[in-house]
Design brief:
The complex is a heterodimer.
Chain A lengths: L3 E3 L2 E5 L4 E7 L6 E7 L5 E8 L4 E4 L2 E6 L4 E6 L8 E8 L7 E2 L3 E6 L1
Chain B lengths: L3 E4 L2 E4 L5 E7 L4 E9 L5 E8 L5 E2 L8 E7 L2 E6 L8 E9 L7 E3 L3 E5 L1
Parallel strand pairs in B: 2-11
Antiparallel strand pairs in B: 1-3, 3-8, 4-5, 4-9, 5-6, 7-8, 9-10, 9-11
The chains are: A mainly beta, B mainly beta.
Chain lengths: 111, 117
């Protein structure tokens, strides 16, 4: 079955860049996503990338995809304290029937 | 746009009672709604997928008689936890796909925290 793994925790200083990594096993993954979850809240879609792309940039966010290694990363430039949250990567196949979420990475940004 | 609400945001109930959670798409019609469960410090696990006017599709291991899903309209889906027990305590999150837009986008509600005493 599908499996999506992330490191559990990342701590950075305000102003630094953050890089959150994700690996997945399903070779039929067509879309890969990054979601943000703040305490006690639902998930906010940050960005997504199609599997035929290598990179996508959206303001402070850069997504890199290495399809050969099934590795996805999210880089947040100039990280702010408001970026502190849990970040989930997720994947879905061509049928878009469901999202499979990673384990989540807790990002802590200190002043 | 693409706002999903859930009601209630939190609920406490006694063991053996039933609890209904609503999920509404406020400014769009949803072709499909999804129900997820999240345990503390863990990821989201899909429980079921519901399409308007048809029966929900449950994931393996999810008891359909315990977690009743009704997708009555293109803007409302409900999850009823029947005969709740303390192990049903969890954070329940719904999401919805926007009708008429790329189907790879899902928008999530703020979640409902259920505590069963």
């Amino acid at each position: 079955g599908e499996d999506v793994e992330q490191s559990l925790f990342l701590s950075v200083r305000e102003g630094d860049s953050s890089v959150i990594n994700c690996t997945y096993t399903d070779s039929s993954s067509t879309y890969l996503y990054w979601y943000k979850q703040e305490p006690g809240a639902g998930l906010q879609l940050l960005t997504y990338i199609f599997s035929n792309m290598d990179m996508k940039q959206d303001q402070r966010l850069t997504v890199l995809l290495n399809k050969k290694d099934k590795h996805l990363s999210l880089r947040i430039a100039d990280t702010q304290t408001g970026d502190s949250a849990i970040y989930f990567c997720a994947e879905s196949d061509t049928g878009f029937q469901k999202l499979v979420f990673g384990t989540g990475t807790r990002l802590l940004v200190s002043p | 746009g693409a706002v999903v609400s859930q009601h209630p945001s939190w609920v406490i109930c006694k063991s053996g009672t039933s609890v209904k959670i609503e999920c509404r798409s406020l400014d769009f019609q949803a072709t499909t709604m999804f129900w997820y469960r999240q345990f503390p410090k863990q990821s989201l696990m899909l429980m079921a997928t519901s399409n308007e006017g048809s029966k929900a599709t449950y994931e393996q291991g999810v008891e359909k008689d315990k977690f009743l899903i009704n997708h009555a309209s293109l803007t409302l889906s409900t999850l009823t936890v029947t005969s709740a027990h303390p192990e049903d305590s969890s954070f329940y999150i719904c999401s919805a796909r926007v009708k008429g837009t790329p189907t790879y986008e899902q928008y999530f509600g703020p979640g409902t925290r259920l505590t069963v005493t």
